[in-house]
Design a protein that fits this description.
Length: 968
């Protein structure tokens, strides 16, 4: 009762919310309703000639676009630059002999038709050119052949989804599973449930008119379609007009959501007619039907390996009772070397499957020409067998089934439930959100919002809360965080007045507002909203478990942002416990939680655990997400180019996530030492930000920081300082003085000045960072340990060993408290304390610290790891200063053993160790051994340094001294 009354109030105030939102995302992509086109090349053609106009009109009845050329160079330029087109080419015979070999290898060129002039003969041998479909004396015969070949090409480009059998899944890589299997099923369910009106048809017709300007033939057909649509059946239109058949199947093949939605009214009507015909005829006998087509060689191999798997065609499927007709289609596909010819032999048993289909006898425009049987989109078949008929022509036996994979059923049902109830359009927008189609979802939600005040349908009214909430979710997904925040505040203002304080919807809104505050870097406020949300959700745990797991996940995200990784991991694991208890094993929420746990482990340097959870994430995402879903790009960051490819196809050009991907790719290259390439990616990210509204944002300051980091690695300290200062300027403008991001940039500047040996300024910036961290962080926070260590190192470089020791001890105090006894960070601190004690001539203490560092490294590293060589060297130097030459020699020899396993024999570092061992032997009066090692050192060093190098001359002098001592 409360919700019914609330819906009316919300409806009255929907426009109030809309006035608070400055911009609504709108479709910006330009569609091409037909990617087939005809190119006509004739050097003597006259476009104004009535015969040419008449011929062009005949071609335009079949394809929307006809391009006429009388210049070969211009024609070749067009051919080579055409993208995502299927080109059919008409060539006059007088140039065919030399022009056909020039172009026939172009992949976009489907077929060639030679138009013979009466005055000249054709000298081209057709048998040598498979794309040449014949020599024709008039345009009418070309049109007949062209229409058949376009029909063939649409057949050949028919897409399908494969789901391996349960038994075979273990041997199939998850990235070979086709995620569209599930989403196309849900899409079909929603489309056929929507109630369309006359405006839907009018919108489609008007859109097509815009695409067909200049093609009077098509415009006339569209006028007929608009005026006479109801006078004929959907099947009649589908089989009569090439543009309907072509546009619809192209959209379904590409999963072009916008075009599918635009043709939803026709999909709905065609599907319902198929159901109606099936119910009227009520077939009871078994049937064998056929379909012939070409499929790509890669797709064929995938299909051939999945006997007993499920196959779903993603469009309306035409089949025939006539085996010969179908076999002809399959056989002719072999003309293209990239295709394998296939004859599908399909068994239908109405007693087993109730999937509807329609025999089109006396119904289609062409009556019973092909004895056609039509199936709706996403009809499922089981693959029974595959056998070769002849070279590159195969028969694939299918059985019509309404069975499905059980795991997929569970995930599909979960997503169906999450999309929720409501009108078909409400559910459509929810599905698009799940698929990562944010722009399209936004357009539908915008339309629904406009309809709310004028719509009294109870079903739409009860969906208002979900519409409003999900509209804000779209803004978040598109990176419009300020807009989302404004929208949520408007929603909250209304709902807090009309709903009980513990209503589950408020928990969802508080949670979503908190998520926006995370994106705006306001973590304290975010946490307060999550806590409100959590209190509501925990009161009715059973009903709100799904909301609670989202809240736990978001709280974990806040703690991760605050640098408290153990607490973050604790909340992620709480979310995981609910995930595993309530969701099927391949649900998207599980992937999200696994990814967050992986990130937390990575930040805690638990790399083995991080990798394990990343692999679990990818396993799910590759199985259940569409191939270009934005979430995949986050997991694919390890191969960043893949992430960028996904985002280029799924996000606006200035979307913040594209900047994230570019920055992450740059980070990968920087970690590989390829600073030039890293810099190019960072600069691309900066270019997007400078052109977008994010100019001067915190994300832009982060890009400045990445660029500064690269310049620092390249030892270009002047440029590095310039970009760090740009980053600092933005942060000072947008952040309060005591913010952790301010501390981070101060640390970076401290490190840069340290590299420039400007220790005074380095110390100043480190201390500014420390002041912020000590104010905001717990006394034992990991970031404090790092900053204490940095300050200690600067004091050590300034030879203020007493202050350095104080800060190193503070570092150690935190690490001993927070880290496991064998953590690598502890080893590094013990090493630093050992170095400092050595400089302070406290050799016993130095040895103690080095031994602790060594003990930790022994547990985590191989016995010949290079870092062990460093500790052995330092310990050897301590023993040498203590005149314990026997122990010194032992450590230096261990260093040498390790160096010989990973360095070249003539490396200068090995020469240094030889010299050091030689000097120890000299101190032990082992002059012969000392001379041997020093000579080895000299032989290597003279290859690396000039003959007058002071150290080389000193080593030569040592050798002379040893030679004298040996003689004595």
């Amino acid at each position: 009762m409360v919700m019914t009354h609330s819906a009316e109030q919300v409806a009255n105030q929907a426009n109030v919310i809309k006035t608070k939102v400055s911009t609504w995302p709108r479709f910006t992509r330009c569609h091409n309703i037909d990617n087939s086109l005809v190119i006509w090349l004739d050097l003597d053609i006259n476009e104004s000639n009535p015969d040419t106009t008449a011929a062009t009109n005949k071609l335009q009845h079949i394809v929307n676009t006809v391009k006429i050329f009388n210049d070969t160079n211009a024609c070749i330029d067009f051919l080579t630059n055409a993208e995502n087109k299927i080109i059919f080419m008409v060539i006059s015979n007088d140039i065919s002999e030399w022009f056909v070999p020039l172009i026939e290898q172009l992949t976009s060129l489907h077929s060639i038709y030679i138009l013979q002039n009466q005055e000249t003969q054709v000298h081209l041998s057709i048998g040598d050119h498979k794309k040449v479909k014949g020599i024709f004396t008039n345009i009418d015969t070309i049109c007949i052949s062209l229409k058949l070949n376009i029909h063939q090409s649409i057949n050949d480009y028919t897409s399908f989804s494969i789901l391996p059998s349960v038994d075979s899944t273990q041997s199939v890589k998850f990235d070979e599973l086709d995620q569209s299997f599930m989403y196309s099923q849900l899409l079909k369910e929603i489309i056929v449930d929507i109630q369309y009106d006359e405006k839907a048809k009018l919108d489609f017709v008007n859109f097509c008119r815009g695409q067909c300007l200049g093609n009077n033939i098509r415009l006339n057909i569209l006028n007929q379609f608009e005026s006479n649509y109801e006078s004929n059946s959907p099947v009649w239109w589908y089989t009569k007009e090439p543009f309907v058949y072509t546009v619809l199947n192209q959209a379904l093949r590409k999963l072009d959501i916008e075009m599918i939605i635009m043709m939803g009214f026709f999909i709905h009507d065609l599907h319902r007619q198929i159901e109606q015909i099936y119910a009227q005829r009520n077939p009871t006998n078994k049937m064998i039907i056929y379909r012939g087509q070409g499929i790509s060689n890669d797709e064929f191999e995938k299909l051939r390996k999945n006997i007993d798997g499920l196959l779903s065609f993603n469009n309306f499927l035409s089949t025939s009772i006539d085996q010969d007709v179908s076999l002809a289609f399959g056989s002719s596909a072999r003309d293209d070397p990239n295709l394998t010819g296939v004859l599908f032999r399909i068994e239908i048993d109405p007693s087993i499957s109730i999937v509807p289909f329609a025999q089109l006898d006396d119904i289609s425009f062409y009556s019973n020409f092909e004895r056609e049987i039509l199936f709706s989109m996403h009809t499922i078949f089981r693959i029974s067998s595959v056998m070769e008929i002849e070279n590159r022509l195969w028969q694939i036996d299918l059985k019509l089934t309404d069975n499905n994979n059980e795991q997929l059923k569970l995930v599909t049902e979960c997503i169906r439930n999450e999309i929720g109830d409501g009108t078909g359009w409400v559910r459509m927008a929810g599905l698009l959100l799940k698929m990562g189609k944010f722009d399209q979802a936004s357009t539908i939600y915008n339309t629904l919002l406009k309809a709310i005040p004028n719509n009294t349908q109870n079903e739409l009214q009860t969906s208002i809360p979900a519409i409003l909430n999900n509209t804000a979710v779209v803004h978040v997904s598109l990176g419009a965080y300020e807009t989302a925040h404004s929208f949520y505040e408007g929603i909250l203002e209304i709902f807090e007045e009309i709903l009980p304080s513990d209503h589950p919807l408020l928990a969802s809104i508080y949670n979503n507002i908190g998520a926006v505050y995370i994106s705006l870097d306001n973590f304290t406020t975010a946490l307060s909203y999550f806590q409100k949300s959590c209190e509501i959700a925990q009161k009715s745990l059973r009903e709100n478990e799904q909301e609670l797991l989202k809240i736990y996940h978001n709280i974990g995200h806040v703690y991760r942002k605050l640098g408290d990784y153990p607490t973050a991991l604790l909340y992620y694991e709480k979310a995981l416990e609910i995930d595993q208890r309530t969701l099927p094993p391949f649900h998207p929420y599980l992937a999200t939680t696994y990814f967050s746990i992986a990130e937390a482990h990575e930040l805690m340097t638990n790399y083995a655990s991080a990798l394990a959870f990343s692999e679990k994430t990818l396993e799910i995402e590759q199985r259940i997400l569409p191939p270009f879903h934005p979430s995949l790009s986050s997991t694919y960051i390890i191969i960043g180019e893949k992430a960028l490819e996904i985002q280029e196809k799924s996000l606006p050009s200035n979307h913040p996530d594209r900047v994230v991907a570019l920055n992450n790719i740059g980070e990968v290259y920087r970690s590989m030492g390829d600073h030039t390439t890293a810099l190019s990616y960072y600069m691309k990210a900066l270019d997007i930000q400078e052109q977008a509204s994010s100019s001067g944002s915190l994300r832009m300051s982060n890009t400045y920081k990445h660029i500064a980091d690269v310049y620092s690695s390249m030892k270009d300290y002047e440029n590095s300082l310039s970009y760090y200062e740009k980053a600092l300027e933005i942060k000072r403008t947008l952040l309060p003085p005591f913010h952790l991001d301010m501390a981070a940039i101060y640390v970076d500047l401290g490190g840069l000045y340290q590299s420039m040996e400007n220790y005074t300024d380095a110390l100043s910036y480190y201390q500014k960072a420390l002041e912020i961290q000590e104010k905001l962080l717990e006394p034992d926070h990991a970031h404090l340990a790092i900053t204490y260590n940095d300050i200690g190192l600067v004091y050590q470089l300034m030879e203020d060993y007493s202050c350095a020791l104080s800060y190193y001890q503070k570092t150690l105090e935190i690490q001993v408290k927070r880290l496991s006894p064998d953590h690598p960070h502890l080893s590094a601190t013990y090493h630093n304390l050992g170095d400092l004690s050595f400089f302070m001539k406290d050799y016993t203490t130095a040895l103690s610290y080095y031994e602790k560092a060594l003990e930790i490294k022994y547990k985590s590293l191989l016995p010949n790891h290079p870092s062990l060589a460093v500790i052995y060297n330092n310990m050897g130097q301590v023993y040498r200063m203590m005149e314990d030459y026997s122990n010194a020699l032992s450590k230096f020899e261990k260093r040498l053993d390790i160096q010989l396993t990973f360095l070249q024999p003539d490396d200068s570092d090995i020469a240094t160790t030889y010299e050091t061992i030689g000097l120890v032997h000299q101190s032990m009066k082992n002059y012969s051994l000392a001379l041997s090692y020093c000579k080895k050192a000299f032989e290597i060093q003279e290859k690396h340094v000039p003959s007058d190098d002071p150290e080389l001359l000193e080593l030569k002098e040592t050798i002379n001294t040893l030679e004298s001592l040996e003689k004595d």
